[in-house]
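Hi all, long-time lurker, first post. I run a small reading group and we've been trying to get comfortable going from sequence to structure in the token notation. Rather than ask abstract questions, I figured I'd post a concrete chain and ask someone more experienced to write out its structure so we can walk through it together at our next meeting. Sequence below, copied exactly:
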Amino acid sequence: MARTMTPGASTDADLPPYDPARLLGLPFPERVRLVCRSFAAQAHPTPRIVMAMYWLKYLLVYVGGWAFFVSRSAGYPGVAAPGTWAFTAVAFHKAILWSIFYELMGFGCGMGPMNARFNPPLGGFLHFLRPGTTKLPLVPGAPLVGGIRRTWLDVALYAANQLCLVRALLAPDVTPVLMWPSVVLIPLLGVTDKTLFLAARAEHYWVALVCLTVAHAGDLWLSACKPIWCAIWFWAATSKLNRHFPSVIMVMMSNGPFFPRWLKERLFVAYPDDLRPSRFAALMAHGGTVVEYLIPVGLLLAAAHPVPTALMLVVMACFHGFIAINNPSGMPIEWNILMIYGGVFLFGVHPEARVATVVGAPALAAFLVFCLAVVPCFGNFVPARCSFLLAMRYYAGNWAYNIWLVRKGSAAKFRKLVKAAGTFREQLEKLLSDPVAVDAAITLAMAHRFMHFEGRPLLEALPQAVDDIDAYEWMEGEVLGGMVLGWNFGDGHLNGTQLLAAVQAQCGFEPGEVRVVMVESQPLFGRGMTWQIVDAASGVLTRGETLLAPMRAVQPWPTGRFADAFARGRSGAVA
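-- Answer (accepted) --
Happy to help. Here is the structure in token form:
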């Protein structure tokens, strides 16, 4: 249901909900305006039953699954004594192993209706165990592993890794012999399909697994894992040093189930006419960034001092807990749970482990410097060449993304692909019998992209992409990529040029049938976001850059010259 917010100084009392037929019949700029207004007006955008389903998944499947495997460990004292088994070395090892297995199965990122997955609610193993599905090899065309379609070899490698993880999880003690297979197989899986390396959360879980394996003797693995947690906090905070993050807070908290209604109104400059993030949203964003910086600094400086360490752990738990209870779309709450658990285990239970100890193992230290410093630094300054996951640029509102515009009637060609699920529209059609309701739902889904500040380049790029945008179906690249690749988590590079080429090779779209607006994220301290328009059959049509400073005064929907560009239609589009 829509909530009624005080219009304040607004001269337009036309508030949502809107009649679907009216919404669909409006010109594109006006349609986007009402879509954004509808998003801002929702008090409970996620049904309670969906929230309950997700939290049952987090607690019963993720936490419960981990607890089950810990119970298979030697000397397990019983479930009634969690204080004696939850923070043991074997429990931490199994938390990392279980997290990798869980994500590669498809149970974590990109699962469920909040990620446009309804039937089935996940890709994961349904996709990765199926020969013929689309994949993105690291080296296209390489013998054996460079094809665009999954082979029995790809399936066997994935299955072998999952079985090795289960073997280690069921073992009474987790030894290097049990972990080495996955240390080797996960990068190999990344060579066959980049999607799998990212799905395993290699920048976090795999790096930790390497530390647990090569530094298993003694307590060196404890010292090696601490900088992993600190690097994640540091780089995640660094990625928020931009103008994007206030809009993330605005969207996330407006979507939050427990954020007070009266505060939601204050997230916007002036609802319903000015839906840019307010000073209040900016204050929350910048405050969160400061806290995220303070967590690693405070924990490292408070080493061996119980009271300040406990204080910083409480701050850390509240920080991640606040994110978790608001269920931001696409955010893996399981990852926040692991961050809390790992922070308490590494810094609270084992304050004696010193990060400086890693210097005594030069090879391990070099590995950590490369993974935790070199790669994230490169990824923040040259984001076009690095996944936002490897760069640890989490939920900063500054990601590469793609909008696929598919000429109406042409989406049927996607059926040529081997995949576990249909398109967003096809899944909705199984749930909603009214075609108008399906069209309205797809239209309303556009709000998430436009409400974020990173959506401003679309105001310049979309009018140049096609001559009549109403003749095309809007497909969010992340959702479409999740359908084609079996996994998605915000990385636009997975649903960009390489995926388009793989889809085109199998579907054979004609020129003009599919146009993709590919927007690259803003480099750290950069001035704008670059973009290109690519036709599936003809290739790159045009490129541009949107300077972001002037866009701070622009509403999320097309106004002024941007609206005029849509009205001009054919004259403004590239051929």
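A couple of things your group might point at:
The beta strands are 268-270, 274-277, 401-407, 472-476, 514-519, 528-535, 539-547.
Residues 1-10 have pLDDT under 50 and may be disordered.
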